[in-house]
Amino acid sequence: MERTKIENELLNKYDLSVDELEFTSLEEYYRQDIKKDEALILVFYLDESNFSQQDLLKAYSENVKRYFDENGDNVRLFFIPTKGQEKIECVNPIYLTDRSEIDKLNDLTSKLEEMFQVGVE
Fold first, then answer.
1. How far is CA 12 from the centre of its chain?
2. Which of 18, 28, 99, 121 shows the smallest number of beta carbons within 10 Å?
């Protein structure tokens, strides 16, 4: 119980009581410093064979970028070759604090996978 001992020492040192403290989860703490204008980072895991056709990959990535630009979305896109399943993932969902925002993100990635034929054989 080293942590409890340290907490009690700090309470005594600064003449505080538990009633005067507000406890926050780690997730909430991280959310406090989040800037609302942080870009959403989306990673497209695409079959590695697509990367041998640079012109096709360039046109594909420009279409995806155009889609987000037209919608005014602040998104950073990364295209990664894979030997496994093609998919789209958001790598910074911690920025989403509301369940409805998380649902929107899940809907968006599903829509993008369908629109841009990710995972379709």
1. 40
2. 121
Measured CA to CA in angstroms, residue 91 lies from 56, 78, 105 at distances of 25, 10, 11
pLDDT of amino acid 40? 80
Burial 10-36 (b: 16+ CB within 10 A, else e): eeeeeeeeeeeeeeeeeeeeeeeeeee
CA distance 9 to 18: 12
Residue 16: in which H helix or E strand, if any?
none
- 39-71 confidence digits (pLDDT tens): 788 888 888 888 888 888 888 889 988 988 888
State which residues of the chain have pLDDT below 50.
Answer: none
CA distances to 11, 21, 24, 90 from 7, in Å: 6, 11, 15, 37
pTM score of the predicted model:
0.57
